[in-house]
């Protein structure tokens, strides 16, 4: 449908892709909204998604497409907005897969209280159901990392892992990198850039680091790497601590 506000389509976030209780995972939602811009953008551009309200699950939502932007709304209230940005995202350095996998033992969500144990990305879900990305500290660095073993259950019918899944993998680690400062908190904004595909049954390193704090805002960067150190995707994110 085309209106004065732009072309409108709809989507609903399946309950599988949940984050905090009763709401959608921010990274998956951001990646899905960003994906609506893919046909109009040069793949070299990063896309910035601002999450303004919690996104409900299994609820029809309105996506409005403008010239170079998209928004997600429910009941007339804007929940998220996506725009291209003319900047590259700086990734944290590569951590080899075996080292990243060893770091998982120190994941704060295993050793302490997990704020979202049902999260699609970092929650304690059954293998194959969630992504089970559990980033822990890499000794001698300011990094956290995890080994991502991509389940075949996240592929589309053509066998491709959708870009929204890569956004999801980039999301939670930036929050957990800020665990010493009280994170994760709630995702407020994520800017991501994807360079290569992710494949089912593949093994990847997910790496993140905290990059600062400003009041209730926590900042982080993350990246997905192939086993040989080739950069797959990078992101930077802003998280918000409760008032």
Features:
243 residues, alpha+beta, Thiol Ester Dehydrase, Chain A, 4 helices, 14% helix
Description:
- The protein starts with a strand and ends with a strand.
- It has 2 domains: 2-85, Hotdog Thioesterase (Thiol Ester Dehydrase, Chain A, Roll), CATH 3.10.129; 97-240, Thiol Ester Dehydrase, Chain A (Roll).
- It has 243 residues and is an alpha+beta fold.
- The longest helix has 14 residues, at 163-176.
- It is 14% helix and 34% strand.
- It has a 12-stranded antiparallel beta sheet with strand order 1-2-4-5-6-3-9-12-11-10-8-7.
- It is built from 4 helices and 12 strands, in the order E-E-H-E-E-E-E-H-H-E-E-H-E-E-E-E.
Q: CATH superfamily membership of the largest domain, which one?
A: Hotdog Thioesterase
How much strand content do the residues show? 25-35%
Helix-strand string: EEHEEEEHHEEHEEEE
Quickly give the structural class.
Answer: alpha+beta
Categorize the overall geometry.
globular
**In angstroms, what separates the terminal alpha carbons?**
39 Å
Overview in brief:
This protein folds into two domains: 84 residues, Hotdog Thioesterase (Thiol Ester Dehydrase, Chain A); 144 residues, Thiol Ester Dehydrase, Chain A (Roll), CATH 3.10.129. The chain is built from four helices and twelve strands, in the order E-E-H-E-E-E-E-H-H-E-E-H-E-E-E-E. Strands 1-2-4-5-6-3-9-12-11-10-8-7 form a twelve-stranded antiparallel beta sheet.
